[in-house]
Amino acid sequence: MTTRTMVRNSVNKPAAARRKRATWDRKRWFWLLVNLAAALPLLLLLWDAWRGNLSVNPIDDFTDRTGKAAIIILLLSLACTPVASILGWRLAATVRKSLGLWAFAYAGLHFLVFIGLDYGFNIGFILQDDLLQKRYIFVGLLALLAMLPLAITSTKGWMRRLGKGWKKLHRLAYAAGVLAVLHFLWLAKGGRMEPFLYAAALALLLIVRIPAVRKRAITLRRRLAT
Amino acid sequence: MMPIPRSEITPEHIFLNRRRFMIGVGSAAGALALAACTAPIGSVSTGESAAASPDATSASLSLDGDLPAALAYGDPYASSTTDELGDSLNSFQEITNYNNFYEFTTNKQQVAQLAEQFEPYPWEVSVTGLVKNPQTFSLETLLTDFPQEERIYRLRCVEAWSMVIPWVGFPMSLLLDAVEPAAEAKYVKFTSVLRPEQMAGQRNSRFPWPYVEGLRLDEAMNPLAIFATGMYGKLLPKSNGAPIRAVIPWKYGFKSIKSIVKIEVTDIMPTSTWTNLAANEYGFYANVNPTVNHPRWSQGTERRIGESGRRNTLMFNGYGDEVADLYEGMDLQANY
Prior knowledge:
- The structure holds two protein chains of two kinds.
- By secondary structure, chain A is mainly α.
- In chain A, 78% of the residues lie in helices and 0% in strands.
- Chain A has one domain.
- Chain A contains eleven helices and no strands.
- Chain A starts with a helix and ends with a helix.
- By secondary structure, chain B is α+β, with helices and mostly antiparallel strands.
- In chain B, the strands form three sheets. In chain B, strands 5, 6, 9, 10, 11, 13 and 14 form a seven-stranded mixed sheet that branches. Chain B has a five-stranded mixed sheet with strand order 4-3-12-7-8.
- The radius of gyration of chain B is 19 Å and the shape is globular.
- At the A-B interface, loops of A face helix 2 of B.
């Protein structure tokens, strides 16, 4: 909270309202910051393309960079809940939906680049290369499909309509994470560390979902805090 | 590109037209017609947008005397703008800034920069094994004892991208003839240099360095198989396997082993580095074949660097007429 908001708010508002107002401000700024950061990979990519900074294989750059952004942001969206509940950083939970939508946007872009820029929507090439027989493509497509209903039902209206079912449905985000990481593991040539780093991050996020682990982690954090 | 009479670049004339090439003296002799094209190797400029990346070609070879004409161009030079199928050559800039060379890094765009630290001169290649006349050749000997000629070849990477590259080099068969393989010789094994202090990627323990490749003796004797010592009329850039590499154009790029220090003629099929790492994905033959897919991705199409979209991959990378008989009667699905 800045000094100025304290002064302004301290005139004749009750303390609870003041606190609420300040939290809302912080939330709003954080939301804006996260959304800007999430847009950055796309903006940088477009900037590099415009400035001619891409490699001599620009389609690969588009594919790689949108795919990488999708996986990283998807993992970050999966991290929101444990960060809020275990580490106690409540603000993290407020950007979960934004991050999920950004991950879906990057995954969709990644798919469009592959099918449109790379294969030029050429059905002949796509059939000839037997794309769905390739397991990395199959799981990649599944990951995108898993995210589709989540993006559609991300609104407050759908949340209300689905009630308890909403939470169940949105566990699909974990399936999308697993499929996305498998996609990367299966397409990467030997010797690359990166897909394994994402696999490790995902494994950690899945492990802390286990109730017993979560409880212990929370207890540990509280003990460390005091 | 500079105006150079065609008669001076045809292989037949290369030896006859050899120029005096003095290191550190600048243009060698005013009397020579091509003097304007020569420059000390240490100060070669690519003539292209060098600002985008470090010049991977700067090197200093202590070759005192003749540098074969085919390798003595100051600016990137090729005798044609296309390959025999009419497809455009890739630019020097593209070839030197986008390639796999895991000895430096797995990132294709960072190879050129990391390869700067590599010192390819002086260099020796030992040729041993089942040969009557084992020898160790200095780079200078290889450059002057064998005819250096231009070969414009397509290079098809197993990752499904490709380029057209004007190599300079000499047929493998000439070197093998010089050492006289014994009657029982069946294979040729190539080994790359091991210098982790100069090659950042070799400090990665996940790979069984040094890199090893192999060919059947009759494959190595095929006239298309060459040892490349240059590219675009200049000595081989550090990023592309300086100072000497194999180029086997009908096979996936990883077969064309770089920075060779050892050649062994043998009767045992050598195990290639990639076969060693993943035998189900990378076989000994690794012939370009659109009908045999990599277990995880397709080989039916490829992206030619510089083009948008894809094109069909050709059987044996378009060199079937010259090499198909090497594999007559063989099951290419099984011998991938």
